[in-house]
TrEMBL record:
This is Glyoxal oxidase. Residues 446-545 form the Galactose oxidase-like Early set domain. InterPro entries: Gal_Oxase/kelch_b-propeller, Gal_Oxidase_central_sf, Glyoxal_oxidase_N, GO-like_E_set, Ig-like_fold, Ig_E-set. The keyword Metal-binding does not apply. Keywords: Signal. Transmembrane segments: none annotated. The lineage of its organism: Eukaryota, Fungi, Dikarya, Basidiomycota, Agaricomycotina. Residues 70-441 form the Glyoxal oxidase N-terminal domain. Residues 1-21 form the signal peptide.
Length: 560
């Protein structure tokens, strides 16, 4: 038993304190533009080691299927090419998450602008696990007559919860001009709970009319954090109760069409204390008519962070400032526990048209933020945000863009179109160019993981083989278990990083890893494991966490 041998060896306890070994080799951080997406990739989710799924509105896209425009695409991370995905219903401004059995579900959408698409407002689109690297033989299953949500939901949020089901939160019923004037102020589940009857949610009533895509996270005790407009709560699914938390300070609002972004900071053993970070958005009142708003009004540069323990809530939100204001920013967790702040605009608002001075064809936002920053969670307050060594792109990623970490460990950026149809030759056109932001480790020799089990149980120890380049052997080690999330509208549904304690064998070739204690710390379902040594991260290896069963699944592991 390798586990027994390892326990007798000197223990390297892996923590996630920041130790940035400034790489002197390789290219450093850099953007690479490669390939075109054929649709506006306003939603993206990694579905395998080689494939991302993109969704767009059903409109006049260049990528075609069956002689009409496509509104779904498979993006091949190896070839940097898009192929059309056969979608039945309109997935415009939908959401999505994986279930505990590895199936991805695309949720909600809109009434289509072209006759080939069906109404997607209560849509459920099923993507079963796909083993073919090119997606051959894989596709979406839809049966709108019998398989649909109870409610119509456009701009809803979804997240995988502790029993492996998806919680679906908020949204609106139909087209509204800017704000949420036709709200769906409830939550429901897939597979359905409560006999399929949605639960009303007071938070959503209180935060109209700018409460779309509520920024929501499954906490390590199974409760749910939610932010809408400038309000925040903890929702207890088991007792159906909402506990109000302090408002986001200084009138800053963070949900669509006033989009900021939010993330659950990496969770660390043994206590997995949750901390929430919310950045960007705007302090503009949500009571003003859109026609009085300007594309030139500065967005908010505020980041607000709170620890979700009784003492942390008592202390309230801690404020820090980004290097520039950002509406529609994105935050991407990196395998080393740092966070990339990227994309968005420095002035204006989300949504298409309505402001008194739209830019280009119909952009409510202007002055794109072209340079990403790094947020280092465990640095002292005031020293956490830096863009030192970060590159600058010239491709605007504003409304209807997406970004996701890939299994290779780089960021895939796509989309942006503040236009109702495909528009070219204007400022802020419909953007089809895909781009990667490559961290420094993409161009150096990296650690590698091999012989990783396909499935890991909670609260268990498992071994993997590692190869660590000799120059890194003195480096600090971190093992991250990650859900890469579903990206749309400045938010990454279900994205998560849980660090795992691990011990390296004396010969440096085997790593013994302790999985998360239970299905609340990491909601059961697919994940990627990344090893970081001295700030050089491996590529990710996909695993199934938990028993892989169809939801709802029972509690697994041990309580913390
Ligand atoms: C774009 O990606 C393709 C496929 O991986 C690769 O062959 C090509 O070299 C890349 N081009 C650039 C400019 O990186
Ligand atoms: C797309 O799905 C439709 C409806 O099921 C079907 O008729 C059509 O043949 C499919 N097209 C492709 C390219 O698979
Ligand atoms: C949140 O917004 C409400 C409504 O505009 C306002 O009354 C309240 O003062 C705001 N809270 C904070 C902390 O700014
Ligand atoms: C928004 O913030 C700016 C800069 O701090 C301030 O001048 C302005 O009064 C604020 N507006 C509102 C509505 O709070
Ligand atoms: C935006 O582009 C569409 C399609 O080309 C066009 O019909 C519309 O007039 C344009 N709007 C503006 C404000 O330029
Ligand atoms: C948009 O216009 C540019 C410049 O004319 C051209 O290179 C590009 O291919 C066009 N893109 C699309 C999607 O038509
Ligand atoms: C996972 O569960 C969903 C919902 O019951 C079902 O549609 C799907 O087929 C299941 N997938 C697998 C791989 O069992």
């Amino acid at each position: 038993m390798i586990g027994n041998i390892l326990r007798a060896l000197p223990v390297v306890v892996l923590t996630a304190h920041s130790c940035r070994a400034a790489p002197t080799e390789g290219k450093g951080w850099h953007f690479v533009q490669n390939g075109t997406t054929g649709i506006v990739a306003l939603e993206s989710i990694i579905v395998s080691d080689t494939l991302a799924v993109f969704f767009d509105r059903a409109t006049d896209n260049p990528l075609q299927i069956d002689g009409h425009p496509a509104w779904g695409a498979l993006w091949n991370l190896e070839t940097n090419t898009a192929s059309p995905l056969n979608v039945t219903t309109d997935a415009f401004c939908a959401t999505g998450s994986f279930l505990s059995n590895g199936t991805m579900v695309s949720i909600g959408g809109h009434t289509p602008a072209i006759p080939e698409a069906k109404d997607g407002r209560n849509g459920l689109r099923i993507w079963e696990p796909c083993d073919d690297p090119n997606g051959e033989g894989c596709g979406l299953f839809e049966d709108p007559e019998t398989l649909h949500m109870a409610e119509t939901r456009w701009y809803a949020t979804s997240l995988r919860m502790f029993d492996g089901s998806i919680m679906i939160i908020g949204g609106m019923h139909k087209k509204t001009s800017f704000n949420n004037d036709d709200p769906t102020n409830s939550i429901e589940f897939f597979p359905p709970k409560d006999g399929g009857v949605p639960r009303p949610l007071d938070l959503l009533e209180r935060t109209l009319p700018a409460n779309l895509y509520p920024r929501s996270f499954a906490l390590p005790d199974g409760k749910i954090f939610m932010a809408a407009a400038n309000q925040t709560i903890i929702y207890d699914f088991e007792t159906n109760t909402e506990t109000r938390l302090p408002d986001i300070p200084n009138n800053v609002r963070v949900t669509n069409p006033l989009d900021g972004t939010a993330t659950l900071l990496p969770l660390h053993p043994p206590d997995y204390i949750p901390e929430i970070l919310i950045c960007g958005g705007t302090n503009t009142s949500d009571q003003l008519p859109v026609a009085e708003l300007s594309s030139q009004t500065p967005a908010s540069d505020q980041c607000s962070r709170m620890t979700l323990t009784p003492e942390g809530i008592e202390r309230g939100w801690e404020i820090e400032r980004m290097l520039e204001p950002r509406i529609m920013p994105e935050m991407i967790l990196l395998p080393n526990g740092e966070i990339v702040i990227i994309s968005g605009a420095q002035t204006g608002y989300a949504a298409i048209s309505g402001v008194k001075d739209p830019v280009g064809n119909n952009s409510n936002a202007d002055h794109p933020a072209f340079t990403p920053s790094i947020y280092t969670p465990d640095a002292p307050l005031g020293q956490r945000i830096s863009n030192a060594g970060m590159p600058t792109t010239d491709i605007a990623r504003i409304y209807h863009s997406s970004v996701t970490l890939t299994p290779k460990g780089n960021l895939l950026l796509a989309g942006s179109s503040p236009n109702t149809v495909v528009v070219n030759g204007t400022q802020y056109p419909s953007e089809f160019r895909a781009e990667y932001l490559n961290p420094p480790y993409m161009t150096v020799e990296r650690p590698q993981l091999s012989n990783v089990p396909k499935q890991i149980a909670f609260n268990s120890e498992f071994s993997v083989d590692v190869s660590v380049p000799s120059r890194l052997t003195q480096g600090d080690l971190k093992v991250a278990l990650m859900d890469l999330g579903f990206s749309t509208h400045g938010f990454h549904s279900s994205s998560r990083l849980v660090f795992m304690d691990a011990q390296l064998s004396e010969d440096g070739k085997t790593l013994s890893i302790k999985s998360p204690p239970n299905n609340r710390v990491y909601p059961p379902g697919p994940a990627y494991i990344f090893l970081t040594v001295g700030d050089v991260s491996s590529t990710g290896v996909r695993v199934m966490v938990g028993n892989g069963a169809t939801p709802p699944v029972e509690d697994q592991g041990v309580p913390i």
